[in-house]
Write a structure and sequence with these properties.
heterodimer; A: 221 residues; mainly alpha; MetI-like fold; elongated; B: 335 residues; alpha/beta; Rossmann fold; Alpha-Beta Plaits; 14 strands
């Protein structure tokens, strides 16, 4: 009998961890870049809000809902042609990022919309009474006031992306998920499976901790 | 001067127009403290929001310094709003900004002030509302009264000519209310700015307002100088408010009046006559005996007043009434 972790190639594990980090980091970045303005627009177009636009709201909301209602594993597959068109391959770290963003951005947009709704209407009214433009209300009052909520939203999105990134291993996405499937599942190397799961748990824990600290730091309530 | 000319406001609820303010015409003079009192849902909140167009009017004109603000386009409206400060029941300060940054906020939004100007103005305002030591705190670290003083400083930042107060003291305890009202009265005197104040407490009106409008169900039911409205309320709603503010129980009062003998008079003293030693001499001259059933001596803004309900027995009642009226006491015969 060999050692307890005989199948574990620590170099492979290190590489896969780094890949997961890159996938989550890059897809989080793009999810925020796309999701934040979409979330702000969702909020502004909403009922009884500053730029009430029922049609625009319905369209935007529908797109977000469609992307969110497709199970991510299906989204991964549906996105393949589009991903190939966009970056030339649907494999590896790069190939996983477009579907991750397609899953993460609408998710984050809803979280942004919710946290903006949490901002006291009185603050919007007061800012309006000062003669602010909509742009000034958004950047001067709404976003700063909703910042803790938005940071909490980024944390939740990041954690969701960790699990999505692991899932992308199924279609050859790379990272820890890929390792778990190729070695842990297909070759019955339980020790590799255990290590990858443990690493994912640690990864999520660290993300949550950082997020919580940031929320606390920016909360002035 | 703020002129309401047949101003009307209704909300569309399920395709039907629900009136919030029936056609109203009135004038608020420059430099006065104008109170609007009413129960919740009476339309006072709507009325005050029409003045800075946070609520658009449905019909009618609002003239401020002879300009119809209901015709302003978006840019004109924003420029106009900078000249109208507003404070709120729940202060509505930005929790993410420090006290100093909250006060600087409207000046930054205006985009016409230099950094130095803003800094100097903020310091000046902090000193005016006695919060210089709290410049770098966040609103959550302040008490209610302090928060409202920040609100006042913020409202004054761009040197407005009108200050709107939306239930500004309703969330404060009595002592803090007093200090905030005093600050408002002082500011009104120092800067000569027009204050429009809405409240559900007649006591607030009594302390700081020059004139008052009483609202009920979307209508102004009574309007006039505070001393008139307060001491001689005509409309039932106004009477309710006055009784409430003096914590008079109507039923108890009726009972007391029934028990009393003789004629019952209500005397109202105002200004100098409040301090005259009148009742004794009147009693001696006319030979009437009196007992005091209820009474209150207080101030309406800066004017002292007294209101006594007396029962008079014996003597010559006409002589007594003449003597009282000669001394400029307002006499009402209740029975």
């Amino acid at each position: 009998m060999k050692g307890l972790l005989s199948n574990v190639d620590w170099f492979e594990i290190g590489l896969a961890s780094w890949d997961t980090l890159v996938m989550v980091g890059m897809s989080l970045l793009f999810s925020v870049i796309i999701g934040l303005p979409v979330g702000v627009l969702l909020f502004l177009f909403g009922k009884r809000q500053l730029l009430e636009q029922p049609v625009a709201y319905a369209v935007l909301s529908f797109v977000v809902n469609v992307l969110r209602s497709v199970p991510f594993i299906i989204l991964l597959i549906v996105m393949i042609p589009f991903t190939v068109m966009l970056i030339g391959t649907s494999l590896g770290v790069a190939g996983a990022i477009p579907p991750l963003v397609a899953g993460g951005a609408p998710f984050f947009a809803r979280l942004v919309e919710t946290s903006l709704r949490e901002v006291d209407r009185g603050i919007i009214e007061a800012t309006q009474a000062m003669g602010a433009t909509v742009r000034q209300i958004v950047f001067g009052a709404l976003l700063p006031e909703a910042l803790p909520g938005i940071i909490a939203g980024i944390t939740v999105t990041a954690i969701t992306l960790v699990s999505y990134a692991a899932m992308s291993g199924v279609i050859g996405g790379g990272g820890l998920g890929d390792l778990a499937i190729r070695f842990g599942y297909q070759r019955f190397q339980t020790d590799v499976m255990v290590i990858t799961v443990a690493l994912l748990v640690i990864f999520v824990q660290v993300l949550q901790m950082i997020g919580d600290r940031l929320v606390l730091y920016f909360s002035r309530r | 001067m703020i002129v309401f000319d047949q101003v009307q406001k209704s909300y569309q609820v399920g395709g039907r127009a629900i009136p919030a303010l029936h056609p109203t015409s009135m004038t608020i003079d420059t430099g006065e403290v104008f109170g609007i009192v009413g129960h919740s849902g009476a339309g006072k909140s709507t009325l005050v929001r029409l003045i800075n167009m946070l609520e658009p009017t449905t019909d009618g004109r609002i003239l401020i310094d002879n300009e119809d603000i209901t015709r302003y386009n978006a840019a004109e409206l924003r420029a106009f709003r900078r000249k109208v400060g507003m404070i709120f029941q729940h202060f509505n300060l930005l929790s993410s900004k420090t006290v100093a940054d909250n006060i600087a906020f409207p000046m930054k939004l205006a985009g016409i002030y230099s950094k130095t100007e803003i800094r100097e103005r903020v310091e000046e305002l902090l000193a005016r509302v006695s919060l210089s030591d709290h410049a770098n705190k966040y609103p959550s670290q302040l008490s209610g009264g302090q928060k409202q003083r920040v609100g006042i400083a913020r409202a004054l930042a761009c040197r407005p000519t009108i200050l709107l107060c939306d239930e500004a003291t309703s969330a404060l305890d009595p002592q803090t209310t007093q200090s905030v009202l005093k600050l408002l009265a002082d500011i009104n005197k120092e800067l000569g700015l027009t204050i429009v104040l809405i409240t559900h407490e007649m006591d607030v009106v009594r302390r700081v307002c020059d004139r008052v409008a009483v609202m009920d169900a979307g209508e102004v039911v009574e309007m006039g100088p505070v001393s008139e409205v307060f001491l001689h309320p005509q409309h039932p709603t106004t009477r309710d408010f006055v009784f409430e503010s003096e914590s008079i129980d109507r039923d108890e009062l009726q009972e007391d009046l029934q028990k009393a003998k003789g004629r019952i008079l209500r005397l109202t003293f105002k200004g100098e006559s409040t301090y005259k030693p009148l009742l004794g001499s009147v009693a001696r001259e006319s030979g009437v005996d009196f007992s005091i059933l209820s009474g209150r001596i207080d101030h309406i803004k800066d004017t002292p007043y007294g209101q006594l309900t007396l029962s008079l027995v014996g003597g010559d009642l006409d002589v007594a009434m003449q003597a009282l009226e000669a001394a400029e006491v307002h006499v009402e015969v209740l029975r």
